[in-house]
Structures are given as C-alpha cells and as structure tokens.
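sorry to bug you again but im stuck and you know this stuff better than me. theres a chain ive been looking at and ive put its sequence and its fold in token form underneath. id like you to explain what the token line says about the fold, in plain words if possible. anything you notice is useful, everything is just below.
___
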Amino acid sequence: MTSEETPEPREDENTAPEPATVHMGITYALGRVVITPLARLVYRPHIEGRANVPKSGPVIFASNHLSFIDSIAIPVAAPRPVHFLAKASYFEGPGFSGWAQREFFTAIGAIPVQRGAGQAALDALDQQRRLLDSGSAVALYPEGTRSLDGRLYKGRTGVAFLALQTGAPVVPVGLIGTDKVMPVGQRMPSLKHRITVRFGEPLDLAHHGPATSGRARRLATDDIMSAIHALSGQELAGAYNEVPPHGAIDRIKQALPHERR
C-alpha cells in the first residue's frame, strides 16, 4: 500500500465478493513442499510463537518491514500458507528470466497487483478482502514501505481497516535480522546471518468500532504497532515512513492533511 489517503470503504451490500485467486496450482504447491524446507535449512531462521497462529480461517499477519526478504521470511516461518501482494511488474518480465521470476513469486504465495493511489489502491484493498473472505492468510506491512534506518515507523490504517471490515484477527509479527541478510540494494541474500521471526498473540480489534470510523482505524492501528514493537524491539521513529516526493504534485500531496493508511 502507498502513503496516500485511506480509500473510502465500498458500500455495496448487494454484490457478493468475487472469489479470490488462492489456489495457485502446481507452482505454489511445489513452493510449499520444496522452497520452504530448503529455505529453513539454508537460513536456519529462529521462529517463535508459531502456536499463536490460527490453523484455519482468515488471518492478517501485520509485520515490521526491513528488507525485501521479509516477504519470503514470513511464508517460510508460518505454519500455514500465506499470501501477499507484490508489484505486478514482478510477473511481467520477458524471456526466461521473466518466467523464472514469475514462477518464484507464485511459489511463495505472491499475487500481482497494480500499486498506486485512487482506483489501484481500492483494487488492492478489495483483493486482500477477497482473500480474507475466502479464509486465507495475508501478510501486510503497516509502515507502508521498508525502514531504511532500522527504526519502527508509525502505522498506516489500511491493515486496521481490513481487520475491522472482515473481522479477521491480526497476528503481529516481529522480524529481526532480515536487513542484515539482505540489506536494501543488495541483490542476493547473505548466508552469514540468521533471522528471527516472532509471531505474537492474535489481536481482536472489533472493540474499537466499525471500519467506517476513522478513530477506530487509528486506535486499532496503534494497537497493532504496539504489538509489533514489543516483538521487534526496534527504536520508535515517531513519524510516518514517507516515500520521498518525485515531483511538484507529490510534494503538494504530502503537504496536505490526510489520513495515513
């Protein structure tokens, strides 16, 4: 999700949700059977709290975000299949390298999505909601983008919106060491470091109120970030992790008041 405003929820009670694409076929099945144990063998992740993860039903993994490899670490460590949204460009490369990249992302549970604001952001929320409605698990990063300095930034309210809208419990995740295994800009992960994946107890956020309430979304988000902080032990940044603006329009958007997702 990006740093723009939280989209208004869609009120279309007469339309049944479209089925999510959660049956990934042979590639995903092989990924669970081959890639997961291989990654555990090679990187020897230290995993804590697996018993906190519900064995069935919808669940949202809400994690801190330090490295590209985070989206591999969570599915590898989780005791059940986990899906996450990835940039559509990862699935669109030409030739053999494009095919290999597409197969790899499919194998680890990634689902392509067009990222951005406006309609693209609404479509991403809808896709995540459909996954949860089908009883799947999804992984999301409330900070919105990777932390480049290792600190934990304030959470955006998109994760809380999905949790309150769908009733799915949120399992906070604390990742430690992924930024050492694969720092930003490094093309290949290192074998010198081990990572730790900590799954916290599920959070029921319904007591904060409905998803349509901005106050409920904010309070629920703060609960999620507090739980992540307790697991990761990171220094708190006390600010949002903003993507540097690339042009005049982007700078104007960041200057305007808006709710952070």
Summary: The chain has eight helices and seven strands. The two ends are 8 Å apart (CA to CA). The domain at 26-240 is CATH 3.40.1130.10 (Glycerol-3-phosphate (1)-acyltransferase). The chain has one domain: 26-240.
